[in-house]
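Researcher: Here's the sequence for the chain we discussed earlier.
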Amino acid sequence: MSLFDEEPKRRVAHEIGQELSLLSVAELDERIGILRAEITRLEEERTRKGSSKLAAEALFR
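Model: Thanks. This is the structure I predict for it:
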């Protein structure tokens, strides 16, 4: 197996509770953007599930 056959390690964008002191301002900005996008995704999913729950509740009333 050669050096080039190995899969590159996947870089973790951010880990909750991770030490931040060694990150640059650009890296912090990147992570803030990633986390904001994830929050938006979570809120959208919560809204979808809430709508589904309301529809189900209305069906049984």
